[in-house]
Amino acid sequence: MSLDRILNKILIIDFGSQFTQLIARRIRELGVYSEIISHKQIKNQNINQSIKGIILSGGPLNVYQINKYSFDKNIIENGIPVLGICFGHQILSKLNGGRVKQSKHREFGLANIYKKKNSPLTKNLFNKKKMIKVWMSHADQVSKLPKKFSVIASSQNSKFAIVENKSKNFYGVQFHPEVTHTKNGKKLISNFIFDICKIKKNWSSKHQKKKLINDVRYQVGNNKVICALSGGVDSSVVAQLLYKAIGKKLYCIFVNTGLLRKNEEKQVVKTFKKKLKINLIYVNAEKEFLMKLKNVSDPEKKRKIIGNLFIKIFERYAKKIKNVKFLAQGTLYPDLIESKSVTGSQTSKIKSHHNVGGLPKKMKLKLVEPLKFLFKDEVRKLGLELNLNKEIISRHPFPGPGLAIRMPGLVTKEKINILKEADHYFIQALKEHGLYHKIWQAYAALLPVKTVGVMGDNRTYEYLCLLRAITSEDGMTADFFEFKKSFIQEISNKIVNSIRGINRVVYDITSKPPSTIELE
Ligand code: XMP
């Protein structure tokens, strides 16, 4: 029997909000199993005893656009506690006889809400002034409460910011408790699931691992799966998870582009082939990549050449494995949000990201994306649960086009060798000083400029090395890391004294925006 059917759960009915996965994530963090189902799929006969609570998500709809959504009212009439969030709050009111209309003042962003009376949903939620800051994002609002509902809290623009029908265990909130901007939002969700739904803790990364392994087995059956392994966190976790699920039916292909960090290819082979015994096809394509990049210095051309060659090589080797039906890739949830435009507006393209996943479209393989509902930190936890070594799990992100985009101008073997050394010394120093994990991403780059220096009474004329170290939440925005002078001095000396080819070091002090994290 599948794990999901045995476990008690909170059912999240999705009406298309971009935050629905965040609700699931908060519930996972509280140690409880939850499942998301679209409002288009849920039927009253799906409701069974394992469902201890129902959350109706937000969404871009309007409750009066009846033709745009379907929802069987009986689903909330099974005696199970219900929490409606934003659109979910509006539809809950509407189904119970209330009214919803366009707000006079749309509310987007932070708002203060004030307590009107006690409720189990808001236990230990408000501050001494009986207020909390919440994050609102709505244009419609409940204008008339249904019978037997009462107001728990209001904001200046939303009289019905939190409401309840205690006898039925129905609760509605106009704001988003699942986003971190809402103060104590997780406490509200915790009050709902533990005190109102009375569900017990039943979920951990161990359960997560078991469920994902079960799901992969169920999806791929006896078929073979290929996976492009890069040595980064996401593809490493996917490879290890699939190996635990299907063993030798998994084939990993690792392409050494020659543009990797120092000794990276050796580490990948050592970890995955020798230690973990995964089927690993190692392809040394260093020369091919260098050839294709000869005389190319335009950043976008570099990215395209590397991306296309990667696909070609991957396909070449994948074809040698007979009867493959699936391609595994490490898509994470934020990748999914970013790839679909929530507002439908055109966003301008800054860089063509080269991502290994989803590339060999011609091969008509079905996708296995076991991490697609997880966030990066959850993937790291899962990796540890799968016994992957800490060093792999906590590595800084590394771009697909590798060192090619960290050396503006031409890509040559000489420059690659110099850069690998400089980067290695920098990263080593960060680790030795206990700084590596305080920094989101750090690297060395080689600028296409030579400057004059003096060493041992002799003139030098060598490259300029740029160091970049940033702090960030998710790579979308970033700030430079403030080093102590002693550290920056030590690493500058180390690089200049140890590497022939570099006689000057600079530190990048721009944030993102206006710069990006990588140079190209
Ligand atoms: P930027 O330079 O756009 O980088 O500020 C944001 C994050 O994305 C990484 N990056 C890439 N990752 N393929 C990847 O898988 C790419 O083509 C690529 N380009 C940039 C970058 O290292 C940073 O973490």
How are the SSEs placed, and which strands pair?
Blueprint (H helix, E strand, L loop, with lengths): L2 H4 L2 E6 L5 H10 L4 E5 L12 E6 L25 E4 L1 H9 L3 E17 L15 E14 L5 E6 L6 E4 L4 E4 L11 H12 L8 H16 L3 E5 L4 H14 L3 E7 L7 H12 L3 E6 L1 H8 L5 H20 L5 E5 L4 H7 L26 E3 L7 H10 L4 H4 L19 H20 L8 E15 L2 E14 L7 E2 L4 H14 L3 E6 L13
Parallel strand pairs: 1-2, 1-3, 3-4, 4-9, 10-11, 10-13, 11-12, 13-14, 16-18
Antiparallel strand pairs: 5-6, 5-7, 7-8, 8-9, 15-16, 16-17
Helix pairs in contact: 5-6, 5-11, 6-11, 8-9, 13-14
The structure holds xanthosine-5'-monophosphate.
The site of xanthosine-5'-monophosphate has 14 residues, from loops.
Question: Which terms would index this structure?
Answer:
520 residues, Rossmann fold, 3 domains, nine-stranded mixed beta sheet, 18 strands, 25% strand, binds xanthosine-5'-monophosphate
Describe the structure.
It is a single chain. The protein is α/β, with parallel strands linked by helices. It has 3 domains: 3-196, Class I glutamine amidotransferase (GATase) domain (Rossmann fold, 3-Layer(aba) Sandwich), CATH 3.40.50.880; 205-248 and 267-284 and 300-393, Rossmann fold (3-Layer(aba) Sandwich), CATH 3.40.50.620; 407-507, GMP Synthetase, Chain A, domain 3. It has helices at residues 3-6, 20-29, 87-95, 185-196, 205-220, 233-246, 264-275, 286-293, 299-318, 333-339, 376-385, 390-393, 413-432, 485-498; strands at residues 9-14, 34-38, 51-56, 82-85, 99-115, 131-144, 150-155, 162-165, 170-173, 224-228, 250-256, 279-284, 324-328, 366-368, 441-455, 458-471, 479-480, 502-507. It has a 9-stranded mixed sheet, sandwiched between helices. A 5-stranded parallel sheet has the order 12-11-10-13-14, sandwiched between helices. Strands 15, 16, 17 and 18 form a 4-stranded mixed sheet that branches. Strand 15 (441-455) and strand 16 (458-471) form a beta hairpin. Helix 8 runs antiparallel to helix 9 and helix 13 (413-432) runs antiparallel to helix 14 (485-498). The radius of gyration is 27 Å and the shape is globular. 38% of the residues are buried. The model is unreliable at 340-347 (pLDDT under 50). Residues 351, 353-355, 397, 399-401, 441, 475, 512, 516-518 line the site of xanthosine-5'-monophosphate.
